[in-house]
Structures are given as structure tokens and as C-alpha cells.
Amino acid sequence: MVMGSAEIVLQGLSMSTPCIVSSRYSVKWGRKMGYVRIVEQLNLSKVQQRRTGFLRNQFPCCQRQGAESVSGVTAEDGNGAWFVGVEKKLNTTNGANVLENEKEDLDQVAEDSIEDEAWNLLRASVVYYCGSPIGTIAANDPTSSNVLNYDQVFIRDFIPSGVAFLLKGEYDIVRNFILYTLQLQSWEKTMDCHSPGQGLMPASFKVRTVPLEGDDNATEEVLDPDFGEAAIGRVAPVDSGLWWIILLRAYGKCTGDTSVQERIDVQTGIKMILRLCLADGFDMFPTLLVTDGSCMIDRRMGIHGHPLEIQALFYSALLCAREMLTPEDGSTDLIRALNNRLVALSYHIREYYWVDMKKLNEIYRYKTEEYSYDAVNKFNIYPDQVSPWLVEWMPNKGGYLIGNLQPAHMDFRFFALGNLWSIVSGLATREQSHAILDLIEARWLDLVADMPFKICYPALEGQEWRIITGSDPKNTPWSYHNAGAWPTLLWQLAIACIKMNRPDIAAKAIKVAEKRLSTDKWPEYYDSKRARFIGKQAHLHQTWSVAGYLVAKLLLKNPNLAKILTQEEDQELVNAFYCMIDNNPRRKRGRKPSNQTYIV
């Protein structure tokens, strides 16, 4: 039989029925049946020589062609297509091993094709301003005619895209994004005659083409930011400025170029964000007080107050800012306030947000209405708040940081981003970080199941859903922000696992995601308890779903790169933390001596 360059013929072990497959497709082994599954865009250069040798030994049709050609390519070429389909294992042990190796190779090729597709989608989402790349749009869904604001560049959505480009060595788009969004920070922002603080960063912006002033025949491009005036619910984005600082540090770490963060305008921008966050108010707690919908969960979901996600990003941004601020007389007071806040914030979160089985039992036995400086139940939490679901759900080994803490209220829901970023930033202790990952492993079917990762758990249902969300038709139980599964959280999971030297957890989650993400056209989120449905209102080709997957893959291939985003515990902060614990009447711990004085 003569084989053309466009196709090859492989025969089964019986050599009775030839299988003809186009050379632009690959074959992936079925686990239960000897079927052939077609996967596009095959590149087998890494294993070409070993495969060619196997074909010559096992298949006469390939052996007759000799070394000259396998699908028209020699063994030395490194580029070609190789296909095989069999229903029974080889009788020899050596043959079985070879088949298993070939299956692994083909699996790797399929993964590479998914990555190639993801990079194509990410680059197709890039937005240009005056000829320069400046960001990526939220979604590029070819099936949706109602784009809403998904054609805009969101600050929080661009973070995984920016990190992906940094890891790929494409720095210009990140640098442009940082500097142009900084310019938007100083724009006038008003809603109903009221203007928020100067340090507020926009939620998103769009590049618009408008007529040039004074010349109707000419046009110019302008940036049109949204600080929340046009957003659903009219909520200002508290997390935008925090993510901007985190990305600025990552840019400097990855490129080695500190000139951007040392610019006067950038230093001024950092200080404006810090002053806005560190401003005095009525609150007694070191945590940031925010309204509902001011972060990734940007709809009414009962997270108003002191949500964990904002506190984790706040802590991370404070550490990043302290690292990047240039020493000068005018910033001394700001740095002192920053350090004091870091100590108080880390103590507050680690001590009062943490729950495990031991802490739950302690809360269950709380006495209430304690009026004393030495009260154990400082926030007057009622033991009946410990829900039956939590008693059954909490594993013996593991724990997590609760979603919110206010007087007489603990939100026991597990919020993924807040917990994962607490690991990344070092807000959680090393022991707590491992316990969070232990819980994820123990409750894998609840938090990952058929698609990583649940944005929160469990869902609000019934009367609770009606009261807290206002009967939001988009946040129905197990959908969207109400315990939907968001693939973009893969990158935060990967960083947290790498930092704790447990990358196998992230690798397992990525394997789950790869089964569906590409086939499902990269949805924004998934619905149902096990994440089996594409979200009922999910946009396809969602950019941060694409970027989150890419960042996770890149970091697992080169774990050292995770250091551009992770932060280790500061020893002075650790010492100060134990100083505060020593003064806590509930518990006594030993500590390393510290000569530093902290004002809290």
C-alpha cells in the first residue's frame, strides 16, 4: 500500500482492517474501549524517534516504508503525525509498556493543543490604544449579541492575563496597562454630585473612537473608565487598586525592571491607594469595611462588612507597597501606619477568622453577653450560628478562614479566593495554609468535582437566598457567585499549592479542567453542585478562564516563577503577632524575643 503525505494507514494487530486518518489529526486512547478519538493539531516532535521505531516493529505497513517516511516525514525531521488504534493489549509485557508510554505521549500532545488554543484566544482578546496593547477584554463570545460591559478591560480580570504575558516574556502589554490605568486614577469621578476618594482605581475602561475636537473629519482614541457609575448596582471596585499594586510588584519581580515602580507618578499612585485604604474611620477593626459587591463577587451576596477576599488582597497589597515605596521624608508616617496595620490585620484574621474542628467546638460552648476587656467571646457570637451543615462538613484534619466577621455574626461559608490568596500572601500561617489545602483535598467533590473551583460553599438556598440576595435570578443556588464553579480560580490554586510545596493538588485540578474547558468553549462559570452544567448566563471564550488555565500550566512547569506573586512571612510581623498572642487572656504561647515596638 502506498501512503501519501496527507494520510497514513495503520492496521490493528490482526492486520485485517486498515484505519485511515488525516495527518492533521491525532488519536487519543479511550480508557475503556479500543476506540479512536480525533484531536486536532498534532505535533509529535518530542517523541518522533521512539514512535517511528515502534511502528516499524509492530506494523508491516510502516516497516515497508522504511526509515524514509512516516506520514511523509523521516524520524530525524521531528515533525509529523503518528496514529494507532487497537482493541486489545499486546500479549508481551514490553508491548504493554510501549503502548502505555505512547498513550502518555498522546495525552501530552492533546494538552499542548489546548494550550495553543488558549494562547490564540488570549491574544485575540488584546485591546489596543494608539497602536499599543493595553489590556484584554473580559470576553470575546461569538455566540452572544448582548455584550453588556464584557467588551471592556476590567482591572481584576486582566490580572491573570497580565501574569500570563509576564511568564511568557511579553512585558509591554503589562507595562502599558499599569501606566495607563494609573492615569485614569486621577480622573474626576462623580455620581449624584458625590465624588469618592482620589485613590480609587476604575473597575474597567474601554477604548472609544471619538471625533477630534475642532475637526469633524478626524477621530481620536480615548479611554473611557467606569468607576462604578455605570456598573450594575453602582458599587465602587475596592479590589481594583489592590490588584494594581500586586501586578506592579509582579512586573518588577519578573522583568527585573524597577524603573516603572520608581517613577514619581507611580509612587504617587501607590500612596493615594494606601491613604484611601488606611484612612481613619469609625470602625474598631483593622479589616477594611466595604459594601456588598465591591470585589469579584460584584452582586448582592451578603458579603458586606469585612469579607475575607478584600482582607487578603489588602494584606498582600500592603506588603507589596512596603516593598516598592522609595524612602523619603514625606512617606515616613505612611510607612509607619502601614506596618501597624499589617500587624493588627494579620493577628485579627489569623485569630478570629480561623475555624477548624477544635475552634468550632469552642464556639459551640461560647458564653454570650460578656461585658469585659478580657471577654473570650469578643464579638458576641451566638453558638446557634454553627450550622448543622458545617458540623458534618468540617473534616477532622483541616480548616479554613471564614468569609466574614462582624458583631454577632460569623459567615461560615468557604470563599475560595480569600482562602487561596491568604496562603499566597502569607496572611494565613504556615500551619493554617496546609490545613486549608487539607480541607480542599478532603472536600474535593464539593469544591472541585467536575470543574474547579467553587467560588464559595455552600450555596444560599430557600428563604436565606431570597432574603440575602433579594431573589437575584442570576445568583440562584449553585450558580454564578452563589457557589458556581469558576475556572479562573485555577491560577490562584496553583500558586497556593506551589508555595506550600503541594503542586499535585493543582495538577489534579488542572486535569479535571482539561477534560471540558476547550470542548465547552472556555465558559465564564459552571452551575450545579458538581459543576456539570455550563453556567446558564455564562459568556463563552471568557478571557480570565483562558488566562487562569495558562498561568496554572506555566507555573507548574516552572514553579520558581510563582515567587513573583507569593510573599513569605515577615519575621518582624511574626514576632509582633506572638507579642499580641501573649497579651491575649485566652491563650499563651512562647515567642522569639523582639526588640521592636509595635503600635496597634
UniProtKB/TrEMBL annotation:
Q: Name one Pfam family in it.
A: Glyco_hydro_100
Organism listed in the record: Stephania japonica
Name assigned to this protein: Alkaline/neutral invertase
Q: What does this protein do?
A: Invertase that cleaves sucrose into glucose and fructose.
Mind naming one GO cellular-component term on file for this protein? chloroplast
Catalysed reactions listed for this entry: Hydrolysis of terminal non-reducing beta-D-fructofuranoside residues in beta-D-fructofuranosides
EC number, as in UniProt: 3.2.1.26
Q: InterPro entries of this UniProt entry?
A: 6-hairpin_glycosidase_sf (IPR008928), 6hp_glycosidase-like_sf (IPR012341), Glyco_hydro_100 (IPR024746)
Keyword Hydrolase part of the UniProt annotation: yes
The record's comment on protein family reads: Belongs to the glycosyl hydrolase 100 family.
Q: Which GO terms describe its molecular function?
A: endo-alpha-N-acetylgalactosaminidase activity; sucrose alpha-glucosidase activity
GO biological process entries:
sucrose catabolic process
Keyword annotations for this protein? Carbohydrate metabolism, Glycosidase, Hydrolase
Report if keyword Hydrolase is assigned.
yes
